[in-house]
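Narrative of activities, Objective 1.

The group set out to show that a structural description can be obtained from nothing but a protein's sequence at a throughput compatible with the screening campaign. Below is one input-output pair from the validation batch, recorded exactly as produced.
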Amino acid sequence: MMLVLLVPAVNKTTRENFKTLISDPTLHLAIQKETIMNLLKEVLKHEVFPATGCTEPAAIAFCAANAAKLMDEEIIKAEIKMDAGTYKNGLAVTLPNANGEKGNLLAGALGIIIKKPTLKMGILRHINEKILNDAKKMVNSKKIKLILDDTKNGIYIEVNLKTKNHKSTCIISSSHNNITLLSKDKKIFIKQKSVKTDKSRPYKIVLKKKLITDLFDIAEKLNVKDAEFIKKGITMNLEASKEGLKIKKVGYYVKDLISKGYLKKDVFSDARMTTSSATDARMAGTSVPIMSSGESGNQGVVAILVPYLVGKAFKVKEKTVLKSIALSHLVNAYIKTFTGELSPICGCAVAAGVGAAVAIVYQLNGKDIKAATLAINNVISDIGGMLCDGAKSGCALKVASSSDSAIRAGYMAVNHEGITEVEGFIGKTAEDTIKNIAYISNKGMDKVDKIILEIMAQKNIT
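Output recorded for this entry:
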């Protein structure tokens, strides 16, 4: 008996049908700009930046600070709206310098009190005892209210403030630091035309139309200035890892297993220890910056440190390692143009882990697209089902698993061994595999994500 399974077709973007897409005015504009656009530079500018604490609470605080900066009277009412993904990631993660305190409401209140939007994603690093106490008073006074808006797709944060005589609003959408509206009373300071998430910035439109082979070519052109920026990210994340070992969580116990001889000291155990301890520091609210990737600190840990540690272990030239990390950032950003910024599946697995695996291929085999395809397939076959249940200390476990998978997948692929299209949801090409996992995440996991959110919301943490 033949079993026929009817499912919606997954769209296939090829160079042939690409021409038909440029009738879209937004896309057409992006393509026109491509000749002068440095895609790597755009990704580094918008998606790779230092952040203190979890990205979502920092974004909430940043948004609130922008609205508060416009006010010179006492805030009598504050309302914070956010999408489900932002809510989920900010729910249970410890805030920096907040004495173990957590929550989206508190993050918003802190932003209102700090009132310095120029601090951007490092805003929570500037919490002191007085600021924390004032923010907690605001939360306890019920002046501040949180609204979960599950109709919003992608990143969306809206802060509305009210004083006796004035009202102010700040909206961030599509990206953690992308202000689409800033206003006070009837005066508008910033207003962007409402567009779909993947059309918010031209580079994303261009990036989404690329092939994996194109990303190798882009990374190969890494210039000196961008290489120095990537080196800064390595140093920053290694420092965070050292801090994370001090708090005796996941990374510490991996190190303990190594020191007692239960784990062999090698590149696998080193990567698990180093990446998980950096994530430990970040998720525990330690006041150390992390260089992000794909606008995520945890993804930055994987995308940067795994290629760095593998390059170090295999004695790869520094220039090649830096180019491989550039490629890792590009692949991470590329995958997220399909899965979205905050997906139901863990981005450290299917985006940053994949980026790190492709980086390993570049280090050891150069532009080997067959190996890169196998590396992508291997990681997604291994940990493609890793669920995202928000940012919290448990993310360090997922980061350790992603690091381990990336190295194993990359090394197998370098030797042209790996999972092919005949198995599971793996596609004929690397691009097809990425689109398949994105399709599963965006369509198939929607109900699962809502159930996870429902479970988390019952914990009565805001």
